[in-house]
Amino acid sequence: MKSPFIFDVAALLRGSAVPETIKQSGPSPTRIGPEMIAIPEGGTVTVEAQIFPLGGGLSVEADIEAQLLGQCSRCLRELTPTRTLHVSEVFAADPDFITGEEAEDEDEIPMVHQDQIDLLQSVIDEAGLSLPFNPTCQRLGYGACDEGDVPAPDGDSETAEETKVDPRWAGLEKFL
Fold first, then answer.
1. Which of 42, 47, 40 is nearest to 69 (CA)?
2. How far is residue 69's CA from residue 149's CA, in Å, rounded to a whole number?
3. Quick check: is 135 in a domain?
4. Is there a domain that residue 120 lies in?
5. How many structural domains compose the chain?
6. Residues 77, 136: Cα–Cα separation, whole Å
7. Which residues contact 162 (CB under 8 A, 6 or more apart)?
8. Residues 6+ apart with CB under 8 A from 24
9. Tens digit of each residue's pLDDT, the chain (176 residues)
10. Strands, DSSP E only, in the chain?
11. What is the pTM of this model?
């Protein structure tokens, strides 16, 4: 199973000064996203990447489109919206690409390995930042939640419970 996040960049590293646009699709190698909604493992992912040579490295601008799978955090309805994530990343072909000397912490900039770049970690990071941790039907464009007995969202003052007067205080209304 070939990951749609792995790109062969040998031609760009060997002297091509022209940016390249590559579009590829495939199954997601892992589940990507927060607990309640994510790109499922094996779900179809389409990646369209523009790769720019930078001499000793590469700059990548990529749009990742996939159908998410999750649940509404209020009514537990299944949600399957299609979303596009945007990733911008620089990959170094040499360990001293940015600093000009051997870097002490090699995890700062992702590296090109065997003439390939892997956008998976960048996509995982972007999904964690941009996908909702508590998705709701209304926030994702599905309208109101289906269940009639689902509690109203926090801060919603138009609930029936708030319009009822507590019987312990009912006698005080005559003083208002």
1. 40
2. 24
3. yes
4. yes
5. 1
6. 9
7. none
8. 4, 7, 46, 47
9. 588 999 988 888 887 678 889 999 999 999 999 999 999 999 999 999 999 988 788 899 999 999 999 998 888 889 999 999 999 999 888 777 766 555 455 457 888 888 889 999 999 999 999 999 999 888 878 788 865 555 555 555 555 455 677 777 777 777 77
10. 6-8, 20-27, 37-38, 44-53, 57-67, 69-71, 78-79, 82-92, 116-118
11. 0.74
Which H or E run contains 110? none
Given a contact cutoff of 8 angstroms between Cβ atoms, the answer to whether 27 and 42 are in contact is yes
Provide the residue range defining the domain that includes 51. 6-146
CB 67 within 8 A of CB 60: no
In whole angstroms, give the CA distance from residue 74 to residue 145: 7
Distance between CA atoms of 150 and 143, rounded to whole angstroms?
14
In angstroms, what CA-CA distances link 86 with 37, 96, 125, 127? 17, 27, 11, 9
Length of the chain in terms of residues written: 176
- Here the tokens at position 21 are 């646009």
Does a structural domain hold residue 74? yes
